[in-house]
Amino acid sequence: MAREARGIQSIEVSGRILKALVERCKPMMLKELAQEAALAPAQCHAYLTSMRHVGLVHQDAQTGHYQTGAFAMRLGISWLESSPVASRAIHALKKLTDETGAMSTLSVWSTAGPTIVHINSGVTPTALNLRQGSVFSTTGTATGRVFSAFDNVEAVRRQIDDELNTPGGSNRSIGITLLRDEFEDWMERTREQGYSTAFGAPIPDVNAVAAPIFDADGKLVFVATLIGPSDELPVDAASGEVRKLLDVTRAMSSNANAPEKPGHRNPEEDA
To answer: Averaged over 6-22, what is the pLDDT?
Structure first.
């Protein structure tokens, strides 16, 4: 049996630090990050300094906490674009934007929350200044509510609690502020319909509809969203745009590896 080639220890140590940041899915203090990566704080700080210089990590100027950086996101996006499921989804959403004129976005869950990894600009400009890397509220947007409804991992649950327990909501993401009862009503509706909508909020006169894309194991991997002026993008149960988006997301979920479509119900009337 061939011996495994010798690696570069500093890269492996950096990998442990990044793994800790990704698995915790939240900004971390130096002390807790060093503990998670099994390093002395001084040693961890030295690695973080170099990783910050190349954009693999970002340090908040006010709190001093660390999280994954812009270059780490670019690496992730590069991987996503080479993924067959992501490639099909990106192509399908581009076609959907061409057909409907609405903006379309593809989002993943990141350490910051629901994050746009691909965007197609719509025909009609909106007041939303969205771009690759923009972060949605987990509780106060259609995109975020799909993650909340269908991705039951600890990081999502923690983000939900943080937003609902923060007066005025989070100022680091796009979205409205909901009370817990209101949010639970949205969760019930989203799971029942298999998608979520937004009517003129968080931006007046702008609607959105978002739906999940699952992998072959039934795990939520992406959320696809259409966004447009309310008079051009109806998101009621009879909307053709809603139907087209669901056709795309269900096809993507089916093609992930399994021949059968996920068992979501057809759109029903929005309450």
So the answer is: 90
The DSSP element (H or E) to which 213 belongs, if any, is strand 206-214
Q: How far apart are CA 86 and CA 223, in angstroms?
A: 11
CATH code for the structural domain at 73-255: 3.30.450.40
> Is 115:108 a contact under the CB 8 Å cutoff?
yes
Look up the CATH architecture of domain 9-68.
Orthogonal Bundle (1.10)
Alpha helices (runs of H) in the chain, residue ranges in sequence order: 9-24, 30-36, 41-53, 70-82, 84-100, 142-150, 154-164, 180-193, 240-255
pTM over 0.90: no
**By three-state DSSP, how is residue 114 classified?**
strand
In tens, the pLDDT along 46-80 reads: 999 999 999 999 999 999 999 999 898 788 878 87
What is the Cα gyration radius of the chain? Answer: 20
User: CATH 1.10.10.10 in the chain, residues?
Assistant: 9-68
